[in-house]
Fold this sequence. Notes:
This protein has 316 residues and is α/β, with parallel strands linked by helices. The chain is 40% helix and 15% strand. The chain is built from twelve helices and nine strands. The chain has helices at 3-14, 40-46, 59-72, 83-94, 109-121, 163-172, 185-188, 191-194, 225-235, 241-252, 254-274, 292-298, and strands at 76-80, 100-104, 125-129, 145-151, 176-180, 198-202, 216-220, 278-282, 309-312. Strands 1-7-6-5-4-2-3 form a seven-stranded mixed beta sheet, sandwiched between helices. A two-stranded antiparallel ribbon has the order 8-9. The protein starts with a helix and ends with a strand. 43% of the residues are buried. It binds pyridoxal-5'-phosphate (PLP). Residues 82-84, 87, 108, 155, 180, 182-183, 202, 204-205, 214, 216 line the site of pyridoxal-5'-phosphate.
Amino acid sequence: MQKKLRHAHTHLTHAGRQENEYGSVNPRVVRASTMVFPTTQALTASYGTRLSYGRHGTETTFALEDALCKLEKADDCILSSSGLAAVTTALLAFLNTGDHLLISDSVYDPTRDFCDSFLKRMGIQTTYYDPEIGENIEALIQSNTKVIFVESPGSLTFEVQDIPAIANVAHRHNIVVIADSTWATPLGWNAFELGIDVSLHAATKYIVGHADVLMGAILCRTQHQAPLRKTHRDIGHCISSDDAYLALRGLRTLAARLVVHRENSQVIARWLLEQPEVEHLLYPPHPTSSGHALWKRDFNANYACGLMGVIFSSQL
Length: 316
Ligand SMILES: *Cc1c(COP(=O)(O)O)cnc(C)c1O
């Protein structure tokens, strides 16, 4: 087994697992709302910490947060009730009335709906840019641009974005780069090394992996933690410990599943390309797909998600 591959597998086996007094391998499912404190002093000391009230988390949700932080090399992980809630929380954390937002044109549709309705109502202006724009994004930056939102591969058309080029421009202008990393998965790319400031996932998809839980995860480094934690807390997002347990269980097999996804997808991609109806394959891990060169540069070739699209020939 290659070294890199073993590394991820080892992480997935150990992450979020701490010794507990009962000796079980996995964290306990702790359901909690009100927490009991032995003294008023202990209660006061808990304010602002994670263990003060069930909405702020339990040892089960903390285990999942810790596991995802390790996997993505992040300082903090904030869990929300859905992937869409992770998107909206991250946007609201960095945008105020009068601000401007740049969003990739192939963004997940409900993200677009949120910008076109909710953010518009708040007086926040959105400009959609060509996902393949790269460093030319600089021309679209205004004095009030606060966030550049990227999604790579993009939803349904699978464009791969030049994240280092975009992040470079963004950081020169003090702009926060938020990425929807759902289709990259935590193993597909090193979000923070590419220059992303806030990496979020619809954990519903590859992290949970078994179509039985809706969940979102927002990962960040310390410098972006405060506005994200505050917004998340103010809005009142939380997740159930049962769901956290299922997500942790799903996470354990993420690497194994992605390897099979990659192998099966290659077979399907080859078959699709042999069909006369198919003009273009939209699958960045395949050499004929646009975006393949960037994918090879920025993604871990051991893991590829199984999603792809096709453009049918107009001749038939
Ligand atoms: C599914 C999805 C979401 C939203 O996740 P939900 O858990 O369904 O709210 C966000 N982004 C992308 C790219 C998705 O595919």
